Amino acid sequence: MEVLTEADDYTHEAVQIRQDFVRERTGVSLSHVTRYSFDPKVVGGNVEQFVGVAQVPIGLAGPLLVNGEHARGEYYVPMATAEGTLVASYNRGMRLVYEAGGVTTTIMADHMQRAPAFVMPSAREARAFAGWLDEHLPEIKEAAESTTRTGKLQGIEKYTAGRMLYTRFNYTTGDAAGQNLTGKATQEACRWIRARYPAVEHYILESNFATDKKSSQVNMLHTRGKRVTAEATIPNELFRRIMRSDTALMFRARQISNLGGFMSGVNNNGAHSANGITAIFIATGQDAANVAESSAAYVHAELRPNGDYYYSVTIPSLIVATYGGGTGLPTQRECLEMLGCYGKDGVRVFTEIIAAAVLCGELSLGSAIVSEEWVEAHDLYGRNRP
């Protein structure tokens, strides 16, 4: 195989060399992987050793009616998936909620973390150091923010264990997801701290207390990314007419589901939030591994005295971006533009759209289960076999 330099790694010639290498070594013709509509140069910074594309079907669900603080109006949601029935299910939930007046969405908090741990000579030194961090927060904030135009250090959480002080540096990150931004900013802050507090024996920039790409109780309580709630009240008549179910049955199923989740030890009580979030993430160029955190959900339901069904989904760690990362790739940018939230000032709109879509998907699957249409739907729409 011809040796390529870093400078020409994303030329058409470089890609052709790799494709020929794969054909020679595997015997596969690559008649689909090698077909794409953009210049390979645009994927620099997104992938290494570029050889082609994975074409994932994109379906459209909607209209999704959102009554948010940032997302207001009707949206058609692109969902990239290979799972039959998924788009149809979300679409059905969107119809139900549309006729009920839409989804109300509220962003409750916004934090992205980097979590360094500092090793001190003793537990008492760790306690004293925690106090010193409080006293010098303005200077630490200045050091951290010297590395970024959009990142803002909001504060530092502190937790002691033995002679170690675990910290969580909390930032807002504008329209970027912010993992790289916070890493660079916190590294600069730690260097500033180490130079001025010689009792620090050692520090590790990430102690695993940010639990990056792993769901955790600390992030579900304290937020990583966006904390957003979607809520709607649905009349029983709509459940009967559109979903062929009933609010009393839905509420009973919710109680059974909560107990089943408790017995099995799940970390959230939703049904399938990962389905919709993953499909939207792939379509719009999000970091798909963040689904591990972002799909955790708190679901709450109430059967009102008049038979209406109040339903809410709180997503405490939704990590999304409308700028940077994969959002600028051609296909992914188009999908964000379909939602009207590509680029600057788009991330809060996007956050509310995702939360609203998740709520619709939860209601749709719940209705399919209680009306005993779940298996039939998969047989009808989800079969792609000879």
Mass-distribution shape: globular
DSSP strand content: 15-25%
Helical residues, percent: 40-55%
Order of helices and strands: HEEHEEHHEEHEHEHHHHEEHHH
CATH class of the largest domain: Alpha Beta
The appropriate CATH architecture of the largest domain is: Alpha-Beta Complex
How many beta-strand segments? 10
pLDDT averaged over residues: 94
Provide the low-confidence segments as ranges.
none
Q: Overview of this structure, please?
A:
InterPro entries: HMG_CoA_Rdtase (IPR002202), HMG_CoA_Rdtase_cat_sf (IPR023074), HMG_CoA_Rdtase_eu_arc (IPR004554), HMG_CoA_Rdtase_NAD(P)-bd_sf (IPR009023), HMG_CoA_Rdtase_sub-bd_dom_sf (IPR009029). The structure is a single chain. This protein is of the alpha+beta class and 386 residues long. It folds into three domains: 1-55; 60-109 and 225-381, 3-hydroxy-3-methylglutaryl-coenzyme A Reductase, Chain A, domain 2, CATH 3.90.770; 116-204, Alpha-Beta Plaits, CATH 3.30.70.420. It has 13 helices and ten strands. Strands 1, 2, 3, 4, 5, 6, 7, 8, 9 and 10 form a ten-stranded mixed beta sheet that branches. α2 (86-99) packs antiparallel against α7 (236-243) and α2 crosses α12. The model has no long low-confidence stretch (mean pLDDT 94).
